[in-house]
């Protein structure tokens, strides 16, 4: 998952600062590498003031452009807008890090207060009538023909974005939209804080030695550490995060405890307590529907998809349903294989959701003689990180070197300078924050602290990858699952999308592309994890340092389509609920009832649940970013599968000619070109869904 921090907001306080501000958050980033955040100086207590000062400055800069008496030109309007809000960008990048990585009791009220103000100033800018008239004037000007291709694209993006956000609405409708946006911002914050609270404060205790039955040593150690962190007297505890829960469900031999852990995890935000998110979701859906109506659309889904590759919900739904049916059929086959093992063991129960991962592993071992515990011994986090660096060097000519002269916001964070291997030119910085801790939201994501540009000087990017791996015992290597290794490569793909950016204007740089395209660069990078070149060089046994043996490599390859039914249904069920919720218009919705009834109508397999149940679906209810957009993972997966076949049709995954095209038209071009056109330039045609079906081992859709 990729997170973008948008830099917009309002102020009620004007504060005059000296050249070097007492509030360190307001200072320019100094030091090497084009300047870096001064994490050793920042204080939560300065956050509100810094945001307000920076917001006021940006609003003044925007108003100066809007009130310019001279006729609108590309230079005095569009290019001028590219220069505004630099201080706010810096402050908001740090604010975003605290929100996601360092959330605390003293930060929460600041976030609750400032999020609506951030939404308000965003609207003040996009709803500024004078400003939009200037943008529209440049968009319609004959002089536009004299601009470069990238400049024309920038004008188009500005115009379409402002129209999308309601710039053409009447004054009354604009005011209503702004009010709705502020209310939504407050609800998103409350939803996120509720979810974080349940993840941080809920756990299942392991009280006896038998409660550890089946668990690998690293998971046992992590459970003991979790108990200590929560000051428990029990032998261990399973935290309420995916990185802790899924391994437990995979290996625990205690069925009763598996069910208890599973219920804790799938009921986050759905416990009828102060952190219950259902009422909040109902409000969010109602406000989104009202806003979409004001924007001239029949539903939130229709509005959100109007600026994507899919264009409308019908196209997205067709793709999902085409793949849903074969995926559900595959789950039935997977469940039958598991049920046979249960029956052969003489047990008298039907496979339930808390059994799926446990018995899937037994099937994997029986069918393919592949034990994920054996594979995991070769998946050292540090070694795989080096493997990612090597892939980036082979595909994109990048080199990563750890640096120690950069302040970090937590001792777990490491920083790497990224340079071009051939020229030695500095490209950017990559921050890595891999471990779970209290105050850090669950999951894995990429952030961009500074966007690449060449417009106002040669500005290098700063990106980060953030994850929630279990740290384990000090001094021992951290071993991760195959799924976690895929996630590691996935998020690194987002980071490379930012690092490879090579454009002039920041609005068009890096990951600033259509929502259903942004996951393509990340998902395609996952494919390189399973290449023999990576596994033989970087999948090294944590005790012997020996490479993964050929026999095991062959087993992994043979089992590459294993459990694809589960993985696909898990994802698409979430995407379908997301889309259907947001196609309902202004209907009053009970989230739990809607989820239950919709899944029944879809013939959702009873043996599993959505990857993200509605009350904990942060992708779509912690912001507008992925709302009515979770389908984008599947949409991008079609493109990814088709694109990777360009390599396999050539000389293989490290074919230099194909890699150069991938860099030129996908990873480095940002939004300087329509994404559909960019893909056709890379591939020579549009993507075909057949490639995805082949990659999953499903029958090809006719």
From TrEMBL:
Gene3D superfamilies tied to this protein: Collagenase (Catalytic Domain), Endopeptidase. Chain P, domain 1, Neurolysin, domain 3
Cofactor details (free text): Binds 1 zinc ion.
Keyword DNA-binding tagged: no
CDD domains for this protein: M3A_DCP
Keyword Zinc in annotation: yes
InterPro entries per UniProt: M3A_DCP, MetalloPept_cat_dom_sf, Neurolysin/TOP_dom2, Neurolysin/TOP_N, Pept_M3A_M3B, Pept_M3A_M3B_dom
Pfam family, one: Peptidase_M3
Gene Ontology CC terms, in alphabetical order: cytosol
Cofactor(s) this protein requires: Zn(2+)
Protein name listed in UniProt: Peptidyl-dipeptidase Dcp
BP terms from Gene Ontology: proteolysis
Keywords of the record: Hydrolase, Metal-binding, Metalloprotease, Protease, Zinc
Family: Belongs to the peptidase M3 family.
Annotated ranges, domain Peptidase M3A/M3B catalytic: 248-697
GO molecular function list: carboxypeptidase activity; metal ion binding; metalloendopeptidase activity
Superkingdom, natural source: Bacteria
């Amino acid at each position: 998952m990729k997170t973008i921090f948008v830099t917009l907001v309002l102020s009620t306080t004007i504060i005059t600062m000296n050249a070097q501000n007492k509030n360190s958050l307001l200072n320019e980033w100094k030091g090497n590498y084009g300047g870096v955040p001064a994490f050793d100086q920042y204080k939560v207590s300065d956050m509100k003031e810094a945001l307000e000062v920076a917001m006021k400055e940006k609003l003044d800069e925007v108003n100066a452009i809007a009130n310019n008496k001279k006729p609108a030109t590309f230079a005095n309007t569009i290019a001028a807008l590219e220069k505004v809000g630099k201080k706010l960008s810096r402050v908001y990048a740090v604010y975003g890090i605290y929100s996601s990585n360092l959330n605390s009791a003293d930060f929460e009220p600041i976030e609750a207060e400032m999020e609506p103000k951030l939404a308000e100033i965003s609207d003040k800018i996009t709803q500024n009538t004078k400003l939009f008239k200037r943008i529209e004037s440049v968009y319609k000007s004959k002089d536009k023909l004299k601009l470069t291709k990238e400049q024309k694209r920038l004008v188009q993006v500005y115009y379409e974005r402002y129209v999308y956000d309601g710039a053409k609405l009447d004054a009354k409708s604009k005011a209503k939209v702004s009010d709705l946006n502020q209310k939504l911002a407050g609800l998103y914050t409350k939803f996120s804080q509720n979810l974080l609270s349940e993840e941080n404060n809920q756990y299942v205790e392991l009280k006896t030695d038998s409660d550890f039955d089946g668990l690998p040593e690293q998971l046992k150690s992590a459970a003991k550490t979790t108990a200590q962190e929560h000051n428990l007297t029990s032998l261990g505890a399973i935290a309420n995060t995916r990185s802790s829960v899924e391994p437990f469900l995979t290996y625990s031999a205690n069925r009763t405890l598996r069910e208890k852990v599973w219920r804790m995890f799938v009921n986050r935000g759905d416990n009828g307590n102060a952190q219950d998110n259902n009422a909040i979701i109902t409000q969010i859906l109602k406000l989104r529907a009202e806003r979409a109506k004001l924007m001239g659309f029949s539903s939130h889904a229709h509005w959100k998809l109007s600026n994507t590759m899919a264009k409308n919900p019908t196209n997205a739904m067709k793709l999902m349903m085409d793949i849903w049916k074969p995926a559900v059929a595959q789950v039935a086959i997977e469940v039958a294989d598991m049920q046979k093992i249960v029956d052969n063991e003489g047990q008298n129960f039907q496979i339930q959701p808390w059994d799926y991962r446990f018995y899937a592993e037994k099937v994997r071992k029986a069918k393919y003689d592949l034990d994920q515990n054996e594979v995991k011994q070769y998946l050292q986090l540090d070694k795989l990180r080096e493997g990612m660096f090597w892939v980036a060097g082979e595909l994109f000519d990048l080199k990563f070197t750890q640096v120690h002269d950069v302040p970090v916001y937590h001792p777990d964070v490491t920083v790497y300078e990224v340079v071009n291997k051939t020229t030695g030119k500095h490209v950017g910085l990559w921050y890595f924050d891999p471990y779970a801790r209290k105050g850090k939201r669950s999951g894995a994501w990429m952030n961009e602290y500074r966007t690449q540009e060449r417009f106002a000087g040669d500005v290098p990017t700063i990106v980060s990858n953030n994850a929630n791996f279990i740290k384990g015992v000090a001094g021992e290597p951290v071993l991760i699952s195959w799924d976690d290794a895929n996630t590691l490569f996935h998020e690194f793909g987002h980071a490379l999308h930012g690092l490879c950016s090579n454009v002039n204007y920041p609005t068009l740089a890096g990951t600033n592309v259509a929502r259903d395209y942004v996951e393509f660069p990340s998902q395609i990078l996952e494919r390189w994890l399973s290449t023999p070149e990576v596994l033989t060089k970087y999948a090294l046994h944590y005790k012997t340092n020996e490479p993964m043996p050929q026999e095991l490599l062959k087993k992994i390859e043979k089992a590459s389509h294993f459990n694809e039914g589960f993985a696909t249904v898990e994802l698409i069920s979430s995407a379908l609920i997301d889309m259907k919720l947001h196609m309902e218009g202004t209907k009053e919705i009970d989230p739990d009832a809607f989820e239950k009834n919709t899944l029944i109508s879809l013939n959702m397999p009873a043996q599993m649940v959505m990857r993200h149940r509605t009350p904990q679906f942060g992708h779509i209810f912690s912001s507008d970013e992925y709302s009515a957009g979770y389908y984008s993972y599947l949409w991008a997966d079609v493109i990814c599968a088709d694109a990777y076949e360009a390599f396999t049709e050539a000389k293989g995954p490290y074919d230099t000619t194909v890699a150069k095209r991938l860099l030129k038209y996908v990873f480095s071009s940002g939004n300087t070109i329509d994404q559909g056109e960019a893909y056709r330039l890379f591939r020579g045609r549009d993507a075909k869904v057949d490639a995805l079906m082949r990659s999953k081992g499903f029958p090809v859709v006719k």
